[in-house]
Here is the input.
Amino acid sequence: MVSKKIRAYLALTRLDRPVGIFLLLWPTWWALWIAGQGQPDIALLIIFTLGVILMRSAGCAINDYADRDFDGHVTRTRNRPLATGIISPREALMVFAALVLAAFILVLFLNPLTIALSLVAVVLAASYPFGKRFHHLPQLQLGLAFGWAIPMAFAAQTETVPFIAWLLLAANLTWVLAYDTIYAIADRPDDLKIGVKSSAILFGRYDLLAVSLAYIATLGLLALTGWQLALNIGFYLILALAALIAIWIMLTAKTRTLSDCVLAFKRNIIFGGVVMIAFIIGFL
Here is the structure.
């Protein structure tokens, strides 16, 4: 019984599925690398890595709480611990609160600007799961929640949030819109039945075209970031490789089946990692 409960808590916080952790870590590490001009502060790297893991887990807990009446009707989510009753809504809220508190304790080691920005991060994490009830672009809310570590990283490293930070946040927003729309395509038949909204429903038969445009925007904004930073030619060569990976992802998702969409979503870990390599090489 104890081991079953532990597995349920791991499932609630998705610590048994680290894909989402990397999708948050990559843009956070991009920001720390840029803010540190290729030499990020090691202490900040540790604090932000731990903070991302905690806040991503907290976000998953509050997401499952918000979707507890929907998840049982969606093929991909019907076995989540709140949907099956293994974990109660009250327990999920307690997990969310504990993880947010732990993340906030980490932030207290940083400067006042970063602490102030962290309060926005909590609001974004807590409000995102409810967006699908009111509008068709909860993926953009997710992008803000996933990317808010970017301005926080610049604030922690430089005590300011320059234009380049917002440019990088914009690139992350379009990237999240791309990969989470692919994820939403997998859920679209069930979402239509239960009445929740998503970008996949909004874009309809033009869904993959919209995803393609979002990847193009991401790559363009990343290229503009490199130009603003005067990075070397190596950055653009590796970014071209990321473009090929984006094409690979799109080809994977073209069937629109649940398994292929989930696989395409997961391959974004590779995309983010290649962009990280591009920034590392760009500063050499």
